User: What shape does this take?
Amino acid sequence: MTTLTDFSARALDGNDIDLGTYAGQVALVVNTATKCGYSGQLTGLQELHDRYAEQGFTVLGFPSDQFKQEPVADDEMSAVCQRNYGVSFPMFAKVKVNGRDAHPVFQWLRRQKKGLLGGRINWNFTKFLLDREGQVVARYGPTTEPAAIAADIERALSA
Assistant: This one.
């Protein structure tokens, strides 16, 4: 059975990160974009990360320019996330989230939990909650504010 820990992703510094690093943690995987109208959610995502990190939770941010809202280089995007939103949770290099060139983790996530219009990710800030075993337990649309996910995170942490 495939889990999050079967994948790797390129970090902002260019190094490949084995997502097995997050084995045993509850994770919220989010496709982000700093020029998106929902970019204010980065603050809420950081708040979730801060609130639950000691209990074994992490947010994993995957910037994407697939919707033309992350046009800057990875280093500039990282600086914006840190400076404007206080982001300290793991952020990865830009990826595609749809199509045949989509990052393998997003190909897998979309198959695990389809959205309202099928498996396709329709916009930035689509969120996937994964349990401690690395399995997808919920998918949230871009309009779902991070604070609205807190109860689901708590359930996953206590399971």
Q: What stands out?
A: The helical segments are 41-52, 74-85, 104-112, 150-158.
